[in-house]
Design goal:
The chain has helices at 14-27, 38-44, 58-83, 105-115, 119-125, 155-168, 184-199, 278-285, 357-361; strands spanning 2-8, 31-35, 88-93, 129-133, 175-178, 205-213, 226-235, 241-247, 253-262, 268-276, 295-304, 307-316, 324-329, 346-348. It has 367 residues and is of the alpha+beta class. The strands form two sheets. Strands 6-10-9-8-7-11-12-13 form an eight-stranded antiparallel beta barrel. A five-stranded parallel sheet has the order 2-3-1-4-5, sandwiched between helices. A hairpin with a 5-residue loop joins strand 7 and strand 8 (241-247). The longest helix is centred in the first third of the chain and has 26 residues, at 58-83. The model has no long low-confidence stretch (mean pLDDT 91).
């Protein structure tokens, strides 16, 4: 079962996307269930934070919504099991981290504390991928409207909400932003193509470009909103199977097993990724390829021009310390990339075999 979040700013096309994805994925043989947006359901039911006579605080309201979100997700997962089907997918209209965009940082921390949750648990463990549709107010203002009665934002407020929502999901390993650089029909097609990649239809192709950053960069010098992820990874027999541990300070840990196979293009690989338990991770560690080192690095996840970048700063082994690589996953190989000025100069190393993950892990000196 695959779990996907469909999120975005106000008037981004989520309602149309929901119907479009349901039709297309069903035609592909998937058993699909959509969970509706919880805040809209609650507000339309009469619990409206804009009510001048309300007797609850924003903290109480958002805490209630997030609790209901988690409960509903678990219920809809059970519903999908009842529905059955060999290829099952559940798509959530917004996910847990969306609520971070509607609370102050201290309020969200209090919600986590009250419920004994952590950020990694809510952001990474629950969802295989997150797709953010950019509000029409950014890039297509002539199509911005207020069809949703739960929304009252003007275009500037919509862009601000859109930005906060994208930033709330920074750090997820598979965040994709679908902007308004094309017409709406093509926007839906681009979304479908990204979803198909996640589902492995026809194959789970990862298309990525990689750049060597010349100047040293430290996390505290990054001038944009970002999330720092601590990564440890190693390879077992051969170069195709990798295990990775992703942590974020005291906010939790998630473990992955990834298998990658080369394609004819240096930019693309077939990738199969699954979450594993801590026990499975450490059992695999005992089978680590003896010709390779354990890699430890810091990953800064940030957005620039609606492109999701991952900046890797290597910590261990010592021979790689301070090596800095910038990566971005693409929808198509010919997608245009805009690298932030503050990272320049960079050198593209996508096709340089010395900078492939397995080669970096090799204990032998790089050629």
């Amino acid at each position: 079962m695959k779990t996907i979040v469909l999120t975005g700013g106000p008037c981004a096309g989520k309602t149309t996307a929901r119907n479009y994805l349901y039709e297309k994925l069903s035609d592909m043989g998937f058993s699909v269930i959509f969970m509706p947006e919880i805040p809209t359901l609650v507000i339309n039911a009469g619990l409206d934070p804009r009510d001048p006579n309300k007797r609850f605080s924003r903290l109480e309201f958002q805490n209630f919504l997030l609790q209901l979100q988690i409960q509903s997700e678990e219920a809809f997962k059970k519903a999908l099991k009842i529905k059955g089907g060999e290829k099952r997918i559940i798509i959530f209209d917004r996910g847990a981290m969306d609520f971070r965009a509607y609370t102050e940082p201290d309020e969200f921390k209090e919600i986590l504390r009250r419920n004994n949750w952590n950020i990694v648990q809510l952001r990474d463990e629950r969802y295989d991928a997150v797709f953010h549709l950019v509000t029409a107010a950014e890039g297509a203002p002539e199509f911005y409207n207020l069809n949703n009665p739960a929304r009252l934002e003007n275009p500037d407020q919509a862009k601000e909400t859109d930005c906060k929502t994208k930033q709330a999901w920074l750090g997820h390993p598979h965040l994709r932003v679908i902007d308004n650089s094309t017409g709406f029909d093509d926007k839906m097609k681009r979304l479908l193509n990204e979803v198909r990649r996640t589902l492995g239809v026809p194959a789970a192709i990862e298309t990525e470009r990689k750049f060597l950053v010349t100047n040293a960069v430290t996390p505290d010098a990054i001038p944009v909103p970002m999330q720092i992820i601590e990564i440890e990874q190693f390879y077992i027999a051969g170069a195709s199977v990798r295990f990775r541990r992703r942590s974020q300070g005291c906010h939790g840990t998630v473990y992955y097993r990834t298998e990658k196979l080369d394609t004819d293009s240096p930019l693309s690989r077939i990738e199969t990724e699954t979450q594993v338990t801590a026990r499975e991770y450490y059992q695999a560690l005992a089978q680590k390829n003896p010709e390779t080192d354990i890699i430890q690095k810091l990953r800064a996840c940030f957005l620039h021009q609606n492109q999701y970048f991952e900046l890797d700063i290597f910590i261990n082994p010592a021979r790689l310390r301070w090596l800095t690589l910038l990566e971005i996953e693409l929808t198509e190989e010919n997608d245009k990339i805009e690298i932030p000025d503050w990272l320049l100069p960079v050198t593209e190393v996508t096709a340089d075999p010395r900078y492939k993950n397995f080669e970096l892990a090799r204990a032998l000196p790089r050629r």
